[in-house]
Amino acid sequence: MYINFVKVVSELTTACPAKKDEILKALNYFINNRDRMLYATFRKAGYFVGSGGIEAGCKTVVGKRAKQSGMFWHVKGAQNVLSIR
Asked: Where are the domains of the chain?
């Protein structure tokens, strides 16, 4: 499967010569990170593979501290408080 993927993507560089550098950059990214992209394995083990849980957690933490009623923040002050949080 891996060899077919490389072959197909490499053939794209011939079909789209204007995008050759972009295609090769993406191909190298997937080759170099394939060990981290075991999403089916991670899901089967019960791990979350999306960013939704992290994003919701950040929103909750920031919202709980920085968005309470009547609060007004300057960027520097808010960053200092959130860094501690």
From this structure: 2-44, 52-84
Summary mean pLDDT of the chain: 83
pLDDT tens for 30-67 read 889 989 889 899 999 998 888 888 888 888 877 777 77
Q: Is 78 exposed, middle or buried (0-12, 13-18, 19+ CB in 10 A)?
A: middle
What size, in residues, is the chain?
A: 85
For 50, half-sphere exposure in the C-beta direction (CA atoms, 13 angstrom radius) is 5
Q: Residues near 23 by Cβ (< 8 Å), separated by ≥ 6?
A: 9, 12, 13, 16
Question: In the structure encoding, which two tokens stand for residue 37, read together?
Answer: 């992209």
